[in-house]
Amino acid sequence: MDLVLVAVIALGAIGLVSSTVLYVCSKKFAVKEDARIGEVAELLPQANCGGCGFAGCAGLADALVKGADAGSIEGLFCPVGGQEVMGKVADLLGMAVVNTEPMVAVVRCNGTCANRPRIAEYSGLRTCAAMHACGAGETACGYGCLGCGDCVAACQFGAISVNPETGIAEVDEDKCTSCGACVKACPRGIIELRKKGPKGRRIYVSCVNRDKGPVAMKACKAACIGCGKCQKECQFDAITVANNVAYIDPAKCRLCRKCEKACPTHAIVSVNFPAPKPATQPAASVGAANVEPVNEGEAKQ
């Protein structure tokens, strides 16, 4: 028999046996995917930002389906899709979704060019991570915003930008989805996700400088000096001072703004509050001011 024909028959036989084995294995060890996972994934925004705690929307969809089978999807939330998308997912899975307060990214730094003057010039790789690795950066504050825009590059929604006048990152709360990408990108940890608050109003300490008061003030005029005046003023135990810097707990804060008035360095910032009404004079004084002087002769008449 021709050797070529023998080789062809042998290879054909090996291929036939291998394909049969693979077919049997594929049937025996097949993993069936729940059709609901694909349906849930279609409802999600497919941003794959990681804000939900999973690598992507597919991971969240799988977790939601498994949670529904276990009887609860509490703790699973898509920050990009928000309450609307989670409501649709809950309806699909026949579950109740827990109402979650909207969050927004907050840049806890008020070290503008006026408050935090530059004392050096950095000429290396223009990223926050690289500059932070080299030291304090271009200012004396080793805790504040570096302004290179790592957070800007990380945001997929165009919700954050660096103000060219102040040199500090700013968040557009209308675009922010609270995915947390900017929080992870900041090497100094100055960006925080906080509750958006009623009518978008919130109060926070715009500083993370942990140096002692005199050192912090030397580096930045608007630094928190850890004096504790805000903590003493707060009646709701919403403020704590640790490592020379104050922190306001959004869960306890009642937005009374007394701490803001008590802060000597104006390190506490309030957002979206109405402008204070102009002070008015008492009615008695106003009336007295409008009375014209009477001539003595006219008074006798």
TrEMBL record:
Its EC number is 7.-.-.-. Residues 32-95 form the 4Fe-4S domain. Binds 3 [4Fe-4S] clusters. InterPro entries: 4Fe-4S_dom, 4Fe4S_Fe-S-bd, 4Fe4S_Fe_S_CS, 4Fe4S_Ferredoxin_RnfB, Elect_transpt_cplx_RnfB/RsxB. Keywords: 4Fe-4S, Cell membrane, Electron transport, Iron, Iron-sulfur, Membrane, Metal-binding, Repeat, Translocase, Transport. Residues 145-165, 167-196, 213-243, 244-273 form the 4Fe-4S ferredoxin-type domain. GO terms for molecular function: 4 iron, 4 sulfur cluster binding; electron transfer activity; metal ion binding. It is found in: Cell membrane. Its main location: membrane. Part of a membrane-bound complex that couples electron transfer with translocation of ions across the membrane. The complex is composed of six subunits: RnfA, RnfB, RnfC, RnfD, RnfE and RnfG. This is Ion-translocating oxidoreductase complex subunit B. It comes from Marseilla massiliensis. The lineage of its organism: Bacteria, Pseudomonadati, Bacteroidota, Bacteroidia, Bacteroidales.
